[in-house]
Amino acid sequence: MSVFAHRNFLVEIALRRDAIPDFNIYPFNIQSIYTLESLRFDKPVTFLVGENGSGKSTLIEAIAILMGFNAEGGSRNFNFATAQAHADRHRYLRPTKSARRMGDGFFLRAESYFNVASEMDRLDAEPGLGAPIRNSYGGRSLHQQSHGESFFALLLHRLRGDGLYILDEPEAALSPSRQLAMLTRMHELVADGAQFLIATHSPILMAYPNADIFLMGEGMPHIIAYEETEHYRVTRQFLTRRESMLKYLLSGGDVAP
Questions:
Q1: What is the pLDDT of residue 55?
Q2: Residue 89 pLDDT greater than 70, yes or no
Q3: Looking at the structure, do residues 220 and 232 belong to the same domain, yes or no?
Q4: Structural domain that includes position 232
Q5: Closest CA to 198 of 221, 178, 171
Q6: Do 232 and 194 fall into the same domain?
Q7: Of 9, 21, 17, 109, whose CA–CA distance to 67 is shortest?
Q8: Phi-psi region of 134 (alpha: psi -120 to 50; beta: other; left: phi over 0)
Q9: pLDDT > 70: what percent of the chain?
Q10: Which residue in 157, 110, 152, 163 sits closest to 134, CA to CA?
């Protein structure tokens, strides 16, 4: 067992295969789902990577709900919905948790972050609820900041450590320099006992040292090295062979293997 395993709040998830009604229907027909037995989280930071449609967001959302988070995101105190688009897929997962109790936690979904910001403003407008929620996000409504500014305010001010942070494609809000800054902030939070589970396409974020990277969509989900990810290989190839790749692509070619 990893030296870090005892620190994690979520140690493992397993697919309750005997409870699946039909492996021919979505999302159970996604390759990374119907081949899934279990995923073990032995490191403070775990990434789920893969092509679009590989099941990363589907699985990470189900894990978040399983751990008590609202389907659209936010802390475990959030309880709202703007659409009935979230099924009960978490019921088909079985968690293994450590004895540690979460002191903090947050689920970020890039696609519904606007709705989370709206809910914060709604709650702050209600009388008698104590200190404004926005105080935990830098003192300003998230709607009064750009997408990237508001997400970075969340990283700096809201996430406090000693918690589980589940992030779905956080790079959608961040410039490359902000992604580098996010690595620094993640490292600070890990030192304060945080556990991260992140679905991402960012070769910058997945470079975080000593993280596990699970590849989704190519057979059973499995751990791969950073340099083996398509994200690293394609980005490196483009940056080192930009002119030849552009000439090939713009003449009607596809990404070279």
A1: 87
A2: yes
A3: no
A4: 228-257
A5: 171
A6: no
A7: 9
A8: alpha
A9: 75
A10: 157
Asked if residue 195 lies in contact with residue 167, where contact means CB atoms within 8 angstroms, the answer is: no
> In what order do the strands lie in the sheet containing 93-97?
38-40, 10-15, 93-97
Q: Which of 224, 223, 154, 214 is nearest to 189 (CA)?
A: 154
Q: Which residue has the higher pLDDT, 215 or 128?
A: 215
Q: Does 121 score more than 70 pLDDT?
A: no
Which tokens belong to 137? Answer: 């996000």
Longest dimension (CA), the chain: 63
E-strand ranges in the chain read 10-15, 38-40, 45-49, 93-97, 104-109, 163-168, 195-199, 212-215, 222-223
In 3D space, the residue among 133, 144, 146, 143 whose CA is nearest the CA of residue 106 turns out to be 133
Task: Please give the span between the terminal C-alpha atoms of the chain, in angstroms, as a whole number.
Answer: 36
Q: How far apart are CA 9 and CA 193, in angstroms?
A: 10
- Cβ atoms of 218 and 229 closer than 8 Å: no
> Six-digit token pair at 23?
């492996």
202, 250: one domain: no
DSSP string, 149-174: HHHHHIIIII--SSEEEEEESGGGG-
The model carries a pTM of 0.84
